[in-house]
Amino acid sequence: MANDVWALAEISGGKLASISLQLASKAAELAGTLGGSSAAVALGTNTQAAAADLGACGVQTVYASEGSVYDEYLTQPHVEALAALIQQHQPRLVLFGCTNFGRDVSARLAARLGLGIEYNVGDVAADNGEITMIVPAFGGSQAVTMAFQGEGTRLLGARPNAFATNRVGGTATVESVPAPAAPSNGAKVAGPFGTEGAAEAGHLGKAPDGHDIWMPAASGAKLEEAQIIVSGGRGLGGPQGFAQIEELATALGAGLGASRAAVDAGWVPYAHQVGQTGKTVKPTVYIACGISGAVQHKAGMGTSGLIIAINKDKDAPIFSFWDLGIVGDLNVVVPQLTAAVKQRKGS
Amino acid sequence: MKIVMCVKETPSTTAEKRFGADMRLERRKEDAIINPFDEYSIEEGLRQQEKHGGETIVLSMGPATATDTIRKALAMGADRGVLVSDPALAGSDAVATARVLAAALQKIGFDLVLFGSAAADAYGGIVPSAVAEFLGLPLLSFATKLDEDGTTAKIERQAEVGYNTVETQTPALVSVMKSINEPRYPSMKGIMQSKKKTIDTMSLADLGIESGTVGAGASGEKALSAEKITTQRKGEIYMGNDGAAERVVAFLVEQKVL
Ligand SMILES: Cc1cc2nc3c(=O)[nH]c(=O)nc-3n(C[C@H](O)[C@H](O)[C@H](O)COP(=O)(O)OP(=O)(O)OC[C@H]3O[C@@H](n4cnc5c(N)ncnc54)[C@H](O)[C@@H]3O)c2cc1C
Ligand SMILES: Nc1ncnc2c1ncn2[C@@H]1O[C@H](COP(=O)(O)O)[C@@H](O)[C@H]1O
């Protein structure tokens, strides 16, 4: 069996998601250790540009399939193209991201081709030709070492940000693959991103409750470098509530973070989102205000030095990975805290 | 309209979790609950039934005792339950689970199948898509809103960034997100009525599935060992608003960041 390792890139609306580069970097590294070759699979529009980025992360080949059918239908065209490629080339391992897209595609592939699949992988290593994976379990309290059983191609779903992007430089050989026809019975994307106001740069469309959703601001607060981050969630109740958090952050000289719920509600730009689909941060202290601590949020801040949580619900998931927890009303506690910090700093 | 809700029994999120000698999650009966994510799909099924009429069926694959969990869904208002249970199913992975659910769904028949977005034990979130593949049908995944009119099903879908609208012809498979609705609590009357509702049990033989294609032996992966992750957190709780701000300031000072 070949020792080739592949990465499945994520392209949506012609944009390559950053996890693709993480997966490509890891595929290149693993293929090197196993003595196989590395490749990335890029399905969608603007695949030539994607191929250049993926090649820069060290993969030798990019199987590129250009077509709008990938944006028009969920999952099924991707599975058609990938199944054919996997059957033809029989790689040992295919890396995908544990994102909505990655889960949907890999689950279908596993069912269709009878492939072993492991997901939520936090780390992977190849030693003496054996592949082992570390999968966090039980809310991140245990690290389980997993191995594949049996023969054939295996699918590995990695947590976002599990692998680093490694731009080693390089150019991949691009092999073009035809796009499949539209499925006769498919999940058709009727309203793609940016249906309203798409002309406006960075506008991604509307959330179900009518609020606007924006792309990352180019400037962006240096969240990744902040020593303290004050982060706010849905519990703040509205833009005014969020303003309280900004005041606390300013008093502490801290970075301003947010949960996806706060971003989707339009209270704060996307550039401040922490989590699986936002930024990964590791400050000395992370102060979560009115944030429940969903796994997707934890994915971006779970390795912070110290975690302070202010939440009125003592059963919130955040109270399973915290250092100091205030079970109280942030409308009372946060303004008092801001005042106390100002007083202490003598400002 | 025939609506099937796929419901998994999981250990309560607060229960202490341990691995057994076989390196599988030890499941204790007293900790068993409805997978919290499935309460939203049960609720959505009931709402669709209120709109369109028809029948709601709760389908679960699990140990014989999982009838208790199905009964909780029936107490919320579903009409009847189906449990697929067989000793050969122990240790099945997501693909095997999907194989079994797909076969059971074919046997039951359906216009609409609802799933949770993930199960709270392993956060896989891959069973719904694998079921769709076995059935040769599209999946409307990660729905935050569902409209179904008998011929078309349309969802608002939570994407990696933002949302989009996705539609398909019925019969349709849909996995739902938490934000889609607010699940109801079972009423006293619902609990009483649930005791009289039927739960049918199916075995692998009933579904015509070879035991070699499911269970621990057919699993494509296995756990070798587990280790406690040692990022020890202090886990201090301060109850109430009074003095909370002072405690945070003192904490920041202790940690030398203020
Ligand atoms: C594909 C995908 C990607 C995602 N990516 C991300 C991501 O990158 N980042 C992210 O954050 N989320 C992400 N999510 C969403 C995630 O699942 C949660 O929905 C989100 O994190 C919830 O945000 P929240 O904690 O602010 O809101 P909620 O879960 O609603 O929590 C609000 C909290 O505020 C508390 N509260 C309310 N009022 C008060 C008060 N007066 N005082 C004190 N506490 C109060 C409540 O008790 C509650 O715990 C993603 C989801 C998906 C499906
Ligand atoms: N054993 C099971 N019985 C019934 N439904 C299941 C089972 N396992 C998974 N599901 C369904 O698939 C969804 C996702 O589960 P998972 O892929 O295991 O995270 C759940 O929310 C359920 O709707």
Largest sheet of chain B: 9 strands, mixed
Per CATH, the class of the largest domain in chain A reads Alpha Beta
Q: How far apart lie the N and C ends of chain B?
A: 62 Å
CATH architecture of chain B: 3-Layer(aba) Sandwich
Counting DSSP H or I runs of 4 or more residues, the number of helices of chain A is 9
Tally of DSSP helical segments of chain B: 7
Count of β-strands of chain A: 20
> Which cofactors or ions or other ligands sit in this model?
flavin-adenine dinucleotide, adenosine monophosphate
Average pLDDT for all residues of chain A: 87
Determine the CATH topology of the largest domain in chain A: Rossmann fold
CATH class of chain B: Alpha Beta
The main pleated sheet of chain A reads as: 7 strands, parallel
Layout of SSEs?
The complex is a heterodimer of chains A (347) and B (258).
Chain A: E1 5-8, E2 11-12, E3 15-16, H1 19-34, E4 38-44, H2 47-56, E5 61-66, H3 69-72, H4 76-89, E6 93-97, H5 100-113, E7 116-121, E8 123-127, E9 130-137, E10 142-148, E11 154-158, E12 173-176, E13 188-191, E14 203-206, E15 212-214, E16 228-232, H6 239-252, E17 255-258, H7 260-264, E18 285-289, H8 295-301, E19 306-311, E20 324-327, H9 330-345
Parallel strand pairs in A: 1-4, 1-6, 4-5, 5-12, 6-11, 7-11, 16-17, 16-18, 18-19, 19-20
Antiparallel strand pairs in A: 2-3, 8-9, 9-10, 14-15
Chain B: E1 2-6, E2 9-11, E3 32-34, H1 38-52, E4 55-61, H2 67-76, E5 80-84, H3 94-108, E6 112-116, H4 127-135, E7 139-148, E8 152-158, E9 163-169, E10 172-176, H5 188-194, E11 199-202, H6 204-207, E12 221-228, E13 236-239, H7 244-254
Parallel strand pairs in B: 1-4, 1-6, 4-5, 5-11, 6-10, 7-10
Antiparallel strand pairs in B: 2-3, 7-8, 8-9
